[in-house]
Specification:
single chain, mainly alpha, 11 helices
């Protein structure tokens, strides 16, 4: 069970956004409405760049190559190698059912002959469910992108983009531009960054602690406060 949870967490950590979107804890400050003419000009641009269903395409196109690929690499690691790559203490993955000389995959197969198939199904279901959730918010994402483009580009510039996206080359680019950001080359670069980020995290947090040491400690929370997110009085 411990090994399954560790691999799931590590695999999701290596997956692309939107899986790792930072949860919003406070409502963002209201922005002034974009120019109406720009909004009108931006809408067909976003229709080309981010048609409905883009989130599902991104999720389904990347889950196998990112998560499954990450899992396969982790299966080939020994416990201490896994801990090192995740930036964990060397003894963090010690377990009575994992021998230090065998890989995580060997230990998993020995403990559960159906472990890999169980993990494959688990990650597929999780990916499908995440795609469904992200699709529900997709209309809002499209509206936000429309507003962003309306703030950034003039009506004339948006017209240039729309005319470009109407060409064969423009259509090809617009239809797959988001998927290109999650293509194999980008996936490899992102996965290579994850262990580096984890290894650097203790040093980063030490810098954060040093930079905030002049501040008083945060107020302690009771168990009720922790559950509700309210600060203790």
């Amino acid at each position: 069970m411990m090994l399954r949870h560790a691999l799931c967490a590590a695999a999701l950590l290596a997956a692309p956004t939107p899986l790792l979107a930072e949860p919003v804890t406070e409502a963002p400050a209201a922005l002034p409405a974009p120019d109406p003419a720009r909004l009108v000009a931006a809408r067909p641009v976003i229709d080309a760049l981010w048609p409905l269903g883009t989130y599902a395409r991104v999720m389904h196109a990347t889950m196998d190559q990112v998560v499954q690929g990450t899992m396969m690499r982790m299966f080939d690691m020994k416990p201490h190698e896994f801990a090192k790559n995740m930036g964990l203490p060397a003894d963090a993955t010690k377990a009575k059912d994992v021998h230090p000389d065998e890989t995580l995959g060997q230990a998993a197969d020995r403990a559960d002959p159906y472990f890999r198939e169980r993990m494959r199904i688990t990650m597929k279901v999780m990916g499908d469910e995440m795609a469904t959730l992200m699709t529900e918010i997709e209309p809002g994402v499209r509206d936000a992108l429309t507003a962003s483009y309306a703030r950034r580009f003039s009506v004339a510039e948006l017209g240039d983009l729309q005319r470009f996206f109407a060409t064969p080359t423009g259509k090809a680019y617009a239809s797959d531009s988001m998927l290109l950001m999650m293509g194999p080359d980008m996936v490899n670069a992102m996965q290579a960054f994850v262990p580096k980020m984890m290894q650097a995290m203790p040093k980063i947090m030490a810098h954060v602690a040093d930079a905030t040491k002049h501040l008083p400690p945060p107020p302690k929370k009771t168990s009720t406060d922790a559950a509700t997110g309210k600060d203790a009085k």
